[in-house]
Amino acid sequence: MAPTDPLQIMDGILQHVTTASNSVAVEQYLSNLSPKDLRETALASTLSSGQDPLSVLHLTQNTLAVLYILGARLTVNNAQPLPFDLISDFCQQFNPEQARLAPKRVTILARGINRLAASNNNPRSAILPLYNLLRRYAPDLSYLTTIHQYFTLTCLQARHPVAALDILSVPITNIETSLSDLTYNDNLIYHYTGGIALALLRKWAEAEEFFEICVTAPGSYPAALQMEALKKLKLVQLISKGKTSSLPKYTHPLLIRQFKSTPYQSFVNSYPHNVDALQETLHRDRNTFAAEKNVGLLRQAIERAPRWALKKLTATYLSLNLADIGKAVKIDSEDEVRAVLLSMIEEGDISATISADDSVTFSDPPPQFTRAQVDQILRDVQSQSGYLDALEKDMAKSKEYLSKAVKGKDGDGPGGGWVGAPDEDVFGAMGSGSSSGLLGGVGSGVWDEINFA
Amino acid sequence: MDIDIADESHQPQTGFSSTRKAIIAPVDDAHPFDLEGYISNYTGRTAIERLIHIVLTCPSIAPEAYQLAVQHIHQSRDPTLYQTLLTAYEQSSVNSGVSFPSPYDLAQLDMKWTDETTARNQADRTKLEVELKSYTNNMIKESIRMAHRDLGDFYRQLGDYASSLKHYTKSREFCTTSQHVLDMCLSILELLIEQRNYSHLTTYVFKADAALDAARATSAANNNGPAGATGTQQKKKVPDREDVQAKLDFATALSHLGQGNYEKAAHFLLKVGDLKNLGDWISKLVAPGDITIYNTLCALATFPRASIKTKLLESSTFSLYMEQEPYIRELIQAYLNSNFKTVLELLSKYSTRHYVDIHLASHVHDLTNLIRNWAVVLYFQPFATIRLDRMSAAFGWTLEEVEQHVVGLIQSGDIQGRVDSQNKILQAKKTDYRAELFARAIKAGTDIQATNRKLLLRMRLQQAELIIKPPKSSNQGGNSLSEFLNVD
């Protein structure tokens, strides 16, 4: 029916796209373009005149068409060469509303940019376009998109994790599948790679949170990536806190069990006092650690081991001399002890003074909070309570909830069907839990249950 | 019914010596110990076993103990004990590195006695087994029970604990009254105590308890029937119950002691009450002085001061016990007067007495540590700061020892304080509660926010059904990504 020469189709497309009245129609036209097998080839070709269609189209007004063409050019073999600058320009100028009509093409574009830069051996060049694409595409940064994982991955490939910081600093709280064709892997990979980037930047607390999100992602079966994230999580905890903390209850039990049989567990067990055993573990399972690329983290953990031993001493002693400290933390040279001590004092890990005769006096000034700090925290907590209240109300009037509540009420006997009572019970409990968030962990438990109910 | 016995039950003594690190307790002027006086408190098998234990732990009096043991063996029916004794004697010589006089010069087993005893044992066994067989054929329940019981007693005398226990438990099937069950349980308890099988004790205490209640219920029922006839019997029953209860409490206490629950052990020992209640168990299994010592050490190690005062020092029943071992009163009083130096000196002076006890030996070290730690904690309580040399004077330790102990206690959280190692001062920790409260509240606030955030994300993921599914859960991302993980 339609012409089979790709060049002619392209002319038709251009014609249609430039004259169509609204972008929804364009999207429908482009996504239903037939024949399907020829679509990509057609989109990747030039006009019959040999002119590049991209030079005719306007990047902002014809965002959808450009998006389709870019995606095709990036995936089809032997397509027209694509100038990188054009991609950059597009990422800067595209019209987000139009782009959101074709989330799949955005994913293809993001993946394409990543691949193209990698094949040019210049992954760093992809950072800025992806950054722009991500920033402009998402309504705000709390939404997870498919672009996220390519962005952090690119930052890691370019060995330039600082670039990702801007994005990583906003925690993901919204998931919208209509915005972006997400899979569970997008979430896992984004948080895993984000965690690595943060660990590279030594932002341990944030890295810990990212790894934890990855490890605790919901699932009926643990993913291999989660296991890797768990290993890194434990190491990051050792580095930043000197000990590991337990995972939330909703972590998949199989992960925890499997972790116990890895050499990492024995490393965690002998941390931080038994430096010899740590070295031995590192040495014995060197191949495993190297294959999993964790040697760097392990080494950092071992390096920091004396600090945790030293920190424990401050709880026991008021003053000690350098040689005694050295003995307790198993460092022979006094100069080394002094160096560790000084760096800890500088970083605010401990408060101590070293006097001329090599004696160290520890002190612990009580934690001080300014009025502004306290106010800030109270404001944060209030806003969070407000947010949770709003969520409750949303859920209470959601169709799914109401239909379930009505169904549950049916069996109760005559006069059933009014959902007021159970409704209030559930949300009364939930509300009190969340608003008392400052005082205890009640809120989290409630959320967990509501979630599964 | 439980009849599984630890493997070494046939020769508990040798098993005992090999699994334990050899404790060597000195006997000299600083550590007085009167062997004759000590062993005269015991009769029967426990005396021999205690002597063997002494041979092992106190090399300096081993030859003497050896001679006594041989004498005792001649009064028993178990010639195999001699072999155990010989092994222990040689072991002790090896452990202490001193060569002892040859055992055969000191005392020898009378060969004639050995042959006679073995023959008699053989004859008795045949007789008892034939009896059992004929009763079984006749199906007379009561006689079968008694035959099993006799066989149990017989094997116990021979030291064959496994067969003994087998027959005792078999007799359970033929018990017709709860009194019989009770008798059986008590026999087994004796057996287990002799065998030092602490973990099994509670099982039979529990069974005996049930039987005791049942026995009382029946006797009460009898009482309601023909009044005059059972009246006299009733009077006999009441003290009986106290006896049994005392024995059960003692067995429970021993089982707790054996498993290191010192507080519970002390608690049950206090319940034992009057010495007379234990009846034939005194000297057959335990001496009154032993109970005093167990009780005091366990109580000092675990009880708060007030209960030590009311439950031990001011208790009329316990003062009878204290007469058994005069130094115990001194020990408790020194403890209550905070003369910790005296306490520790007394503990060390009588450590030999403690180490030779077969039930206590393995716990002396732990108990002494506990008492010492308590003492240090108690001593420091009233002070805000104290010089370590004052503590060293109070405890009779060197400065290093004091520091080491104090540091250990701080690290285990028993003392809220910090050591000034330069000036040798121990300072109590000062806490600014207001600031701490702020810190805690703020930490809780931020933690909750983070948790909520993570949970919300998790909820959103579930709502969007982004859930990891089993089949192809491993993803290629893991491998291609991992090459960037080498953090420098």
Structure description:
Chain B: Pfam families: PCI (PF01399), RPN7 (PF10602). Chain B: It comes from Coprinopsis marcescibilis. The complex is a heterodimer of chains A (453) and B (488). Chain A has 453 residues and is mainly alpha-helical. In chain A, 64% of the residues lie in helices and 4% in strands. In chain A, strands 3-5-4 form a 3-stranded antiparallel beta sheet. Chain A starts with 5 loop residues before the first helix and ends with a helix. The model of chain A is unreliable at 412-453 (pLDDT under 50). Among the domains of chain B are: 8-109; 250-379, Serine Threonine Protein Phosphatase 5, Tetratricopeptide repeat; 383-444, Arc Repressor Mutant, subunit A, CATH 1.10.10. A 3-stranded antiparallel beta sheet of chain B has the order 1-3-2. In chain B, a hairpin with a 4-residue loop joins β2 (417-420) and β3. Chain B is globular. The model of chain B is unreliable at 1-21, 225-236 and 472-488 (pLDDT under 50). Chains A and B meet through α10, β2, α12, α13 and α14 of A and α23, β2, α24 and α25 of B.
Ranges of chain A where pLDDT stays below 50 over 5 or more residues in a row are 412-453
Task: Write the element-wise H/E pattern of chain A from the N-terminal end onward.
Answer: HHHHHHHHHEHHEHHHHHHHHEHHEEHHHH
Run of helices and strands of chain B: HHHHHHHHHHHHHHHHHHHHHEHHEEHH
Q: Strand tally of chain A, please?
A: 5
Question: What would you call the shape of chain B?
Answer: globular
Radius of gyration of chain A: 28 Å
CATH top level assignment of the domain at 250-379 in chain B: Mainly Alpha
> Oligomer, anyone?
heterodimer
CATH architecture label name of the domain at 250-379 in chain B: Alpha Horseshoe
Helix percentage of chain B: over 70%
CATH topology-level name of the domain at 250-379 in chain B: Serine Threonine Protein Phosphatase 5, Tetratricopeptide repeat
Mean pLDDT level of chain B: 78
Proportion of β residues of chain B? Answer: under 5%
Strand count, sense and closure of the main sheet of chain B?
3 strands, antiparallel
The tally of beta strands of chain B, per DSSP, is: 3
InterPro entries (chain A): COP9_N, CSN3, PCI_dom
Domain PCI (chain A): 206-368
GO cellular component, one term (chain A): COP9 signalosome
Family (chain A): Belongs to the CSN3 family.
